[in-house]
Structure formats: structure tokens, C-alpha cells
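Field log, afternoon session.

UNIT: design team B
ACTIVITY: writing a sequence onto a fixed backbone
BACKBONE:
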């Protein structure tokens, strides 16, 4: 890890509007290089080996010129946490103005999951629905839910393993997106995804940056969806850059998750379902974590950096 980069380190704390994947406070580490800010924000429970790709992405963002871009704005989906209160769901839906698709978190309780999906359908009858399971289902659970949920655009990571995904794909016509199967693999280039997934979910930090994400897409030769990992505007902006660097982009991207934060380091508004790519200087004052948390993140970065050598 370049010492000059480390000297610019800021670690900030961003509260979320609702509990999202068990998180109500999102801590992110930021540093500034010759080409702007990079974000390092693997979730707290991730080990150093998994976090290494996140750090590679942050270093790339701060030190590498941006790639060629093919668009100036990116269409995004709304992201619906595992909520069931209709008023809460309406507030979340309303925070995504003009979006034409919604990704709904499901996987814990089939009845509640179906109710959540149907509430979104009632609120936005013209919108496409996607569901995200984070690999929680067995093949049987997935098949039963997909048979009952009605028309959806795709299902994201319904089961944990390639073998389960392949079995499920033989039993359903619903398109399957691979997320964790790719980003949590020891070597995502060494996977045979044939007959297991239809599309790849690309998240710029977990996959090690823009260059590596492109290499993975080219290697697996599958259409891609670009999404975020509940990042600050700095991480989202790098995800937008990844999305804009693909000549063809068939799907709305999961890059509107800034709407789930109470505060952010910059405003990236969703206008008519799209986010513009912009240059900005983040506002970090008042967001810094305690000295103890800063040291925790700095030590984590230094340990993780050793794995990138």
C-alpha cells in the first residue's frame, strides 16, 4: 500500500434509513490518489483474503485513469430491503423516482417475501421485478417460490453452489443471475458457469476493480448487470464508471443504493430513473469515526495490502 495514499485515509460512518442486511451504520474507508478518491468498504465480517479485491479496486480508482465511457448516465433499479410494513415500503419505493425496475430482497420467509413482492407490484404495476436471495435457498425452495411469485425479470443467486444453480436452471425458465458464486470464489476465472447462470452480477469492489470486472465478463461471455455493495457516493461513482464502460448494457443497474443512506459524502440524485456520471469533491466533515475505529480500519488496510503484493 503506497504510503502517500495511506496518509490521505479518512474513515467515515454513514447511517442507513432502514436495517439493510443487518446493517444500520455503514463504515467506509476512503483515500485520495492522483486520479481521485477510492473507496475500501468490505463488510465488517469479511476476512482479509476476501477484502483484498476490494482494496485492489480502491487503489485502482485512486491511481488509474478512467476507462473509455460509452454513456453519460446509467439507468438504475430500486432496491427493496426485507421490510413488510406497507408505509415503509412506500417510502423506499418513493426514494427511487422514475425507476422502471425494483430488486426485492427475499429468502427468509416465503409468505412475507411474496407479500413484499406483491406490495411493490401494487405500488409500481408497470415496473419489472427482480428478486435477490443471497444463496439462501435449496433447489426445492427456489423452485417452489419461482412457481408462485409470478412474472419476474430474473432471480439473483437463489442457491449457493454451481451444482444447485445448474439443477434449478434445468427446472425453471426464470433467468438466473450469479453474484456470490462469482465474487466469493477463490478464483472466479476457474468457474464453469455453463448451464448454471444466464447473467453475471458485477460489483466493482468485490471483483477487484474495473479492469478485472471486464476480464471476468469477457472470460465467461455472459451478459452483465452492474450493482453496488451499499457504498458511499465514491464507491457508487466507481460502479457507475464500470457500468458506463460497457458498450452494451441490457439491464438497469443496482447503483441507486445511496437512497438507502441517511447521509452521504455527495449527492448522486436519481432523475427519471437514471444517475448522471459527475465529478465531485466529497464532503466528509462530521462523518469521521472514532480514533479506535480509524485504527481498526487502518490496520485492516495494511494487513490486506500485504495480500496484494
Amino acid at each position: 500500500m503506497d504510503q502517500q495514499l495511506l496518509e490521505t485515509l479518512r474513515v467515515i460512518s454513514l447511517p442507513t434509513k432502514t436495517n439493510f442486511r443487518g446493517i444500520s451504520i455503514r463504515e467506509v474507508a476512503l483515500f485520495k490518489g492522483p486520479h481521485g478518491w477510492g473507496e475500501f468498504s468490505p463488510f465488517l465480517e469479511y476476512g482479509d483474503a476476501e477484502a483484498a479485491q476490494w482494496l485492489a479496486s480502491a487503489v485502482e480508482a485512486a491511481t488509474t485513469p478512467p476507462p473509455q465511457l460509452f454513456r453519460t448516465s446509467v439507468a438504475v433499479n430500486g432496491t427493496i430491503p426485507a421490510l413488510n410494513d406497507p408505509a415503509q415500503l412506500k417510502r423506499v419505493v418513493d426514494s427511487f423516482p422514475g425507476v422502471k425496475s425494483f430488486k426485492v430482497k427475499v429468502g427468509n420467509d416465503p409468505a412475507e417475501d411474496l407479500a413484499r413482492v406483491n406490495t411493490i407490484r401494487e405500488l409500481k404495476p408497470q415496473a419489472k421485478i427482480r428478486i435477490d436471495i443471497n444463496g439462501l435457498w435449496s433447489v426445492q425452495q427456489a423452485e417452489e417460490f419461482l412457481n408462485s411469485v409470478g412474472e419476474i425479470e430474473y432471480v439473483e443467486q437463489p442457491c449457493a453452489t454451481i451444482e444447485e444453480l445448474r439443477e434449478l436452471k434445468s427446472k425453471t425458465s426464470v433467468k438466473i443471475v450469479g453474484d456470490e458464486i462469482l465474487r466469493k470464489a477463490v478464483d472466479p476465472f476457474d468457474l464453469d458457469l455453463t448451464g448454471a447462470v444466464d447473467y453475471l452480477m458485477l460489483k466493482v469492489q468485490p471483483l477487484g476493480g474495473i479492469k478485472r470486472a471486464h476480464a471476468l465478463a469477457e472470460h465467461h461471455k455472459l451478459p452483465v448487470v452492474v450493482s453496488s455493495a451499499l457504498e458511499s457516493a465514491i464507491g457508487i461513482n466507481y460502479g457507475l464508471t464500470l457500468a458506463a464502460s460497457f458498450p452494451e448494457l441490457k439491464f438497469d443497474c443496482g447503483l441507486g443504493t445511496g437512497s438507502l443512506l441517511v447521509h452521504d459524502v455527495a449527492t448522486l440524485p436519481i432523475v427519471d430513473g437514471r444517475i448522471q456520471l459527475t465529478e465531485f469533491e466529497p464532503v466528509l466533515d462530521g462523518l469521521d469515526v472514532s480514533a479506535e475505529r480509524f485504527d481498526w480500519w487502518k490496520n485492516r488496510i495494511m494487513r490486506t495490502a500485504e495480500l496484494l503484493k
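LOG NOTE: The chain has a mean pLDDT of 96.
NEXT ACTIVITY: expression trials, pending approval
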